[in-house]
Amino acid sequence: MPYSKPLWSGRFKEPLSEIALKFSSSIDFDKKLYQEDIAGSIAHVEMLAATKIISSEEGRRIRTALKEIAKEIDAGHLDLSWEKEDIHLAIEQRLIQKIGSIGGKLHAGRSRNDQIALDERLYLRTAIHELQKLITQLQRVLLYHAEKYFRVIIPGYTHMQRAQPIYLSHHFLAYISMLDRDFERLSDCRKRANKLPLGAAALAGTSLPIDRNMVARKLGFDGIVENSMDAVSDRDYLIEFISVCSTIMIHLSRFAEELVLWSSQEFSFATIDDAYSTGSSIMPQKKNPDMAELVRGKTGRVFGSLTAILTIMKALPLAYNRDMQEDKIPFFDAVTTTRECLFMFSHILVHTHFNKNRFEDELKHDFLTATDVAEYLVQKGVPFREAHSATGKIVAYAVEHKKSLDQLTLKEFKHYSKNFSDDVINVLDPHKSVEHKKSAGSTSPNEVKKQIVHWTRALKNRKLSAQ
Ligand code: ARG
After folding, report:
1. Do residue 285 and residue 371 come from a single domain?
2. Global pTM value
């Protein structure tokens, strides 16, 4: 059988030691790329035939054999153990085993350096498509909740201190906006990643008359990576992608943290269904929000992947270096973890109920409408700073006398500003506070409704990036 030694072993007198091969073998993790690798090889071989670098009969035979190999791998019939070094060599070796030395023509005009960069970019496109689908699904669940809980008032927080009344819907809609930027960031990352590196060969290009643009068109790329050194040594697309994954995870972890807090007895605001909660092995009464906690925890894992890829790439001289083989572990882990967390989060949210009346009573007795009192004075012509100071004094007075704002008399209000009159009562009710908001993007019912209408339309017409 031709080429029973490693395909690159021509200049070597001794075989690679077993421990060195084991240490450098990447097939355990890069076998994930077999479909991309074969799709890339098919496009490459079609181009080799079209440019007459190989005959069309040879091209046809290689293509057919590659398709068979894909099926063998699908069925788990191809040996992909560590001795094979990497997925590229395993497939090429199998090809040569199947069709003899014609198979050895496939690698003309390319190298594993541009081949791996191609496989990764193809894999990235699918990952982006899948993440965008999951983001959209989560946004739809959030929208469903925004409609379901429309007009439910909760305290909005700053510094984890009660600040102003807001609609729970407004809170959900904030997350829809955050996730929408993530969706766009993924599209944006794809724009720069969707260029073909293949044909850069090892680093310098090739003397063979290949047509890189033809391969780019066949594989759905928007052109080629122009500089062959850049093509084989660039991993910006992974850095950008994992950083987008990290931002998605930040967003999920913030909401996860809120669910953990809200489902505590102290808050008693959210109840996560039993099917998405776990018990304690010792404390019989416990019901824990483990799914939300795990999303929060897995965020650390994705940040770890970002740190890994940044560190692998830092200070690498041009062009390809074997260090870059290590890029796939953080890449794949970021894809899987982000995908699973987005998926799980939609399910947790569908199975979470919010206690609509939880804050009704408390809202009245808090000072959540103090800002409305200050703005009331502003509307009577008082400079905001004076209004703020007078209202602050009223709050201090109320705290001292153990009263809420709506329990104060007009006389007490007037003591701090002569501009108060009977109608101040209108701004003390948290429901009115929300209804009186006028600014664009505020928590007023009209503005919240507008956002709901906007997202209903946007999510209905949502177009995902192509795979
Ligand atoms: N397994 C290698 C990687 O993932 C493929 C490229 C190997 N190139 C080389 N010159 N050894 O980076």
Report:
1. no
2. 0.94
